[in-house]
Amino acid sequence: RHRHRYEFNSLYANDFQNAGLILSGTNPDTNLVEIIELKSHPFFIGVQYHPEYKSTVANPHPLFVKFVHAVVVNKNKK
């Protein structure tokens, strides 16, 4: 669900990618960037959709599961 007026400005896509940002997901209908990642960070993901709407306590969205996993892994590294 895309419920705001903010969008990734694709005019700057190459600049962001050259700086290390990964444009990892686009909306197939609008071709708008919906998911970004930063490979140099232990867990940096930005999304323009609402994964919380697809989550329940018994069945969380995979994004939340991966986030908690990354927290545990990185906590144990310190």
Description:
It is a single chain. The chain is an alpha+beta fold. It has one domain. The protein is 28% helix and 19% strand. Strands 1-2-3 form a three-stranded antiparallel sheet. The N and C termini lie far apart (37 Å). The mean pLDDT is 88.
Structure, briefly:
The protein is of the alpha+beta class and 78 residues long. It has helices at residues 13-18, 62-77; strands at residues 21-26, 33-38, 45-47.
The average pLDDT score comes to 88
Number of domains: 1
- The share of residues in helices is 25-40%
Structural class: alpha+beta
Spatially, the strands of the biggest sheet line up as 1-2-3
Number of strands: 3
Features of this protein?
flat, 28% helix, alpha+beta, 78 residues
How is the secondary structure organized here?
Layout: H1 13-18, E1 21-26, E2 33-38, E3 45-47, H2 62-77
Antiparallel strand pairs: 1-2, 2-3
